[in-house]
Task: structure prediction
Amino acid sequence: MTAAVIDGKAFAADLRARVGELAVAFEAKAGRKAGLAVVLVGEDPASQVYVRSKGKSTVEAGMNSFEHKLPADTSETDLLAVVEQLNADPAVDGILVQLPLPRHIDEQKVIAAINPDKDVDGFHVTNAGRLAVGQPGFVPCTPLGCLMLLKDRLGDLSGLDAVVIGRSNIVGKPMAQLLIAESCTVTVAHSRTKNLPEVVKRADIVVAAVGSPEMVKGDWIKPGATVIDVGINRVAAAEAGKTRLVGDVDYASAAQVASAITPVPGGVGPMTIAVLLRNALVAAYRSAGLELAADAI
Ligand code: NDP
Result:
């Protein structure tokens, strides 16, 4: 068997197009564009690329992008003041503070300062709590993107066995919560899990969010399972001096066993920004008190 490839790039493009249409409708109804503010502290090259790409995508989706680039030596107090100013700004529906922050700044304190109704990353403890108890809030973009791909592929997930490898606050834990809400039977594995291959073998759905290149092998996978590979790992390529991206799953062997699998790159990666735009638009509809059908995006 060779697994079907779950095309996250195509799904993300479609999602972005739908967000774009709803952004036009929002502007017509609200008399203003939806707005997403992104705050970057320092000059980390990867963060700079992400922030640029988020800004460009926001504008392409018909929303206003407000970029706040602050020097690396910005004090925590000054950053908190920027967050407060964005909380109070009615043109700003969503706020994203790019992580990681420089070491002298307490990330948790900054996340806690964001108005939870503008927290489009879904990292605020209020949004984690809302997800845990099933109230509407904001869900972190990467796991929500994974869930969208799973539902698109499998339809109803009810009763399926799911194993999430990884228990971070931004991927593993919210992924597990989302799957519980879909009535899956969920196991969360991590670095202390015993007999990980056997645990994974039970799963109809495997979500790998570890950060360990090609760790999950094909012979760990139950035949016919659906595999979502969140990992983004840069490794040396065959050609000297070059690198390539691989996931947390050994794609070649897993694709022989799974019924469907996300590739890296082109699987989960493109979903993250698309879901961010989706969350920003939902924030705008909510803040303007406008209806947005539950199945609209
Ligand atoms: P973290 O480092 O925060 O968490 C990794 C998790 O994997 C931890 O819970 C850790 O366990 C667990 N783990 C580590 N080693 C093992 C092991 N040998 N066996 C089982 N579990 C293990 O990472 P993130 O959740 O932030 O990210 C995970 C991966 O997803 C990374 O490759 C990252 O680059 C990628 N990523 C991709 C995104 C995208 O847009 N596609 C977005 C976000 C992340 P423990 O808790 O016990 O330490």
User: Anything to note?
Assistant: The mean pLDDT is 97. The two ends are 33 Å apart (CA to CA).
